[in-house]
Amino acid sequence: MFKPSFKPKKTYIDLSAVKKTPVTFDTREGNFPCPACSVWLSEAEKIQNNDFCPRCGYHFAVGALERIYGVCDENSFTELDAGLSSLNPLDFPDYADKLAKAREETILMEAVVTGTAAIGGHNVAIGAMDGRFMMGSMGSVVGEKICRAIERAAEQSLPFIIFCCSGGARMQEGMLSLMQMAKTSAAVGRLHAAGSLYISILTHPTTGGVTASFASLADVIIGEPGALIGFTGPRVIEQTTGQKLPPGFQRAEFLLEHGMLDLIQPRLEMRSLLVRLLNVHQGGNHDQK
Amino acid sequence: MTRNKFEFESNYRLLESKLAELRDLSVTLNCDFSNEIAKVEKRIAELKAERYRHLTPWEQVLMSRDLERPMTRDFVELLCTDFVEMHGDRLYGDDPAIVGGIAVFEGRVVTVIGHQKGKDTKENIVHNFGMPRPEGYRKAFRLLKQAEKFSRPVITFINTPGADPGVGAEERGEAWAISQLLLGLSQLQVPVISVITGEGGSGGALALTVADRILMFSNAVFSVASPETCASILLRDVKRADEMAAALKLNAVSLKDMGIIDEIIEEPVMEPLLSSQSFTQSLRYSLKKHLDEICGTEIPDLLEMRYQRLRKIGRFHEIQ
Ligand SMILES: [Zn+2]
Fold first, then answer.
1. What is the pLDDT of residue A8?
2. For the stretch B108-122, what's the b/e string if a residue is b when 16 or more beta carbons lie within 10 angstroms of its beta carbon?
């Protein structure tokens, strides 16, 4: 049977307790409401609590670098392929402006950051997508950087770890974007053939062409609590089919229940899980030939 | 084609009807204009054909969706003999939006897989408007592995609005099914050739279009998302889909320039595809030519080339 809400782990405040606590409305300027429980927070409170809501444990979105630093050994991350930037290959209206705005707002060049790092002393190839950069959409650069990271992992017998966060293929690059699905999937094929461990972490939200390509081709697929994961977005499903969406539809817990994820892991316990997985895989290359 | 598909046709209809009036009048008044009328008639037909040869991208989108276009079963009937259709994914069900099986094409046993829309609304409900569910993709995957076992080359025919956008499809792992096909095709140890015959709708179409060669009909389209979806998301106005159709560069000529497809099969003008002998002949000829080439290549080389053709797709700037 389907259970609509996730079972809170020990680091979480029990959801049932939340409802009993009155909501505070410290609505002074700069504060914002938690999207899950509506308590008002300041940026400082959020950061102090590692990007969770201190009241209900809601996982606020974090950027690509925070993701990487959150699981890697201190000072071990080296960014690679940082010099890649998007063009406007189709001369798509407004694309150049949107790119410029995203670069300015995120201080990133594109929606994915990739490189090498160590986790629990194991060398890994790692990447993290950033949902703030044009909704983490995959165009030529995102596809190319992920592809290079995967190929590097295959060549150097490194495990590959990716934090996914994406609205899908980037419309503004047309078919060049769609083909990145095939390109990254083919690269994953080589990674598996090389015997490297591949761990994919699906964070909120992971939808469309990313879910339907490299993201769901890993040896171990981990979801973050409450993350929206699917192919077609829930609004489109509702609009096009008129179907009523079941409770908790497309949330990580729902996907676990339907057999699509290996496990759900809260963000604070992600590093320890990755270390454990890398340890049991003896560093991540299991080619025993 | 016979019925009015586009607004511009009414202009030619008007010209034709005025000419008919003139013909009637010339008979009544007993003046012989038949030479002149024949000339004008010819000129109108030329202009109309010329217009049809230069459809706008949005007109091509509408053309690609025409239910009168032949679907996978029609192509199998036209090109192959001894077709045996196979059903089911051995996991959950059979999806009528994708048909597949074995057949003989030009003396070669091949596995054929493709999308199937209905010819009318009633049929379309059965075929789910050609939108595959996870079962369809998993059936395709099963048939591909079967082709691999028997060293049969694979031909796929692409014509779908996209993957089914329903609750059940999500529950049964649509994204997982598509990704497995993308990876599976990229490593399949037999030659694969795809023909985009109509609507190439997003990931639902791409799932069967990872191939050694991709052929495309001249009025078919292949797009990251439908122009309507792009218009409603990017312009917040679904009525501006025609602008998006142009911006997306989704037609065969643009995709050939991008190196995504290999060859364009010219469609006949104002004639059903399968009634045109030159069209069916060039389809058969191109398929055979490309199939001969890829079947003559060693599998490891073929797989390396298949990888590299995907690997090089993408345009970006790089500073060291
Ligand atoms: Zn909260």
1. 36
2. eebbbbbbbbbeeee
CA distances from B263 to A266, B64, B216, B283 (A): 49, 17, 6, 11
- Gap between the Cα atoms of A82 and A4, Å rounded: 41
In this structure, the number of other CB atoms found within 10 A of the CB of residue A28 comes to 8
Tens digit of pLDDT for each residue in B275-318? 999 999 999 999 999 999 999 999 999 999 999 999 999 999 99
How many other CB atoms sit within 10 Å of the CB of residue A244?
Answer: 9
Contact predicate A122/A156, CB 8 Å: no
Q: Looking at chain B from residue 167 to 186, which residues have their Cβ under 8 Å from any Cβ of chain A?
A: 167, 169-176, 178-180, 182-183, 186
pLDDT in tens, A198-244: 999 999 999 999 999 999 999 999 999 999 999 999 999 998 899 89
Q: Is B204 a domain residue?
A: yes
- Please count the other Cβ atoms lying within 10 Å of the Cβ belonging to residue B259: 12
d(CA A173, CA A181): 13
The pair of three-digit structure tokens given for residue B311, joined into one six-digit string: 């690997």
With a CB cutoff of 8 Å and minimum separation 6, the contacts of B315 are A87, A89, A140, A173, A176
Do B248 and B278 lie in one domain? The reply is yes
Neighbour count for residue A75 (Cβ, 10 Å): 9
The answer as to whether B181 is a domain residue is yes
For A266, other C-beta atoms within 10 Å of its C-beta total 19
pLDDT tens for B255-275 read 999 999 999 999 998 889 999
The answer to the question of residue B39 being in a domain is yes
pTM of the model: 0.91
Sign of the torsion angle spanned by Cα atoms B241, B242, B244, B245: positive
Looking at the structure, do residues B230 and B289 belong to the same domain, yes or no? yes
Nearest to B175 among A171, A179, A211 (CB): A211
Distance A9 CA to ligand 1 centre (A): 15
- Paired strand residues for A201: A163, A222
pLDDT at A4: 40
B30 and B82 both lie in a single domain: no
Nearest in space to B99 (alpha carbons), one of B139, B53, B52: B139
The distance of B127 to chain A (nearest Cα, Å) reads: 15
Q: CA-based Rg of chain A, rounded to a whole angstrom?
A: 19
CA neighbours within 13 Å on the CB side: how many for B228?
7
Asked if B224 and B293 sit in the same domain, the reply is yes
| Parent domain of B37 | 8-54
At residue B277, what is the residue type?
Answer: Q
Same domain, B89 and B20: no
B203: domain CATH number is 3.90.226.10
pLDDT, residue A284, reads 65
Q: Are residues B28 and B142 in the same domain?
A: no
Contact assessment for residue A60 and residue A53, using Cβ atoms and an 8 Å cutoff: yes
B77 belongs to a structural domain: yes
3-state secondary structure of A90: coil
Do residues B46 and B65 share a domain? no
pLDDT of residue A39: 87
Q: Which residue has the tokens 């897989």?
A: B113
| B153 in the same domain as B34 | no
8 Å CB contact of A183 and B249: no
Q: Return phi, psi of residue A234, to 5°.
A: -60, -35
Whether residue B248 and residue A241 make contact (CB cut-off 8 A), yes or no, is: no
Number of domains in chain B: 2
